[in-house]
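Figure 3 (text version): structure tokens given as input.
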């Protein structure tokens, strides 16, 4: 559970651990694999639901000295859950001012969260898929990719049902999702991380191809209470997903 370790490290740095329940800290805290007792799928689901509830609770964001740290732990939590469930996650919002749907696929292996300067000298957070490479050799192709979808021509519930059917039918979820969006002329863009701008204190999604203004999508906390509620609901829906529906 590498991502949970990364989340634990950030929470510890921010002094947030003491605000969480003991069961949550125990689940997040790094463990040696040989000393870790086996837990059931139901227990793991309950643990994740508790963490989602606590990390999206009213007032917690304001306890962070660095709001970029909060964005990183939510990003990491989403990817950790998709990896655990073996199914991608659709979110109706991720601290964005505009109307988008966010699609986080299930990664082929559990990534590692890394932070480093990008080509614009912004501090960026990525999910590294190739764990054999050290951070200095980290390349574009080693980054976990997620998708931001124009929601003006697609119904969230219908798209979520499509994803569930792709997984239950044993199909490649990412390929089938992209094919469905393409066939229905729905804009879908690839992103690889989130960043804190060097020139001002804003936050931005990092595009896969760094292709300039046309791909810029900002993050903000204007509607953070509603956004956290949406994230909690959509992650819980993923956690409740069963392969045999």
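Below: residues designed for each position.
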């Amino acid at each position: 559970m590498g991502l949970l370790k990364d989340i634990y490290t950030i929470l510890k740095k921010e002094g947030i651990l003491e605000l969480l329940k003991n069961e949550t800290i125990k689940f997040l805290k790094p463990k040696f694999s040989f000393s870790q007792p086996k837990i059931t799928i139901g227990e793991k689901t309950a643990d994740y639901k508790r963490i989602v509830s606590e990390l999206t609770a009213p007032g917690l964001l304001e306890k962070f000295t660095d709001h970029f740290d909060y964005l990183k732990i939510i990003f990491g939590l989403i990817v950790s859950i998709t990896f655990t469930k073996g199914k991608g996650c659709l979110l109706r919002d991720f601290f964005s001012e505009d109307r988008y749907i966010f699609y986080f696929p299930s990664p082929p292996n559990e990534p590692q969260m890394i932070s480093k300067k990008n080509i614009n000298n912004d501090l960026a957070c990525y999910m590294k898929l190739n764990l054999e490479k050290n951070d200095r050799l980290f390349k574009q192709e080693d980054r976990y990719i997620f998708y931001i979808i124009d929601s003006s021509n697609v119904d969230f519930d219908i798209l979520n049902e499509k994803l569930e059917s792709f997984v239950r039918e044993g199909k490649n979820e990412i390929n089938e999702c992209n094919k469905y969006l393409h066939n229905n002329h729905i804009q879908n863009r690839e992103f690889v991380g989130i960043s804190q701008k060097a020139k001002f204190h804003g936050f931005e999604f990092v595009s896969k191809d760094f292709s300039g203004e046309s791909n810029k999508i900002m993050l903000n906390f204007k509607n953070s209470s509603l956004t956290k509620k949406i994230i909690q609901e959509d992650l819980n829906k993923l956690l409740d997903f069963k392969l045999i529906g």
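The first strand starts at residue 89 and ends at 91.
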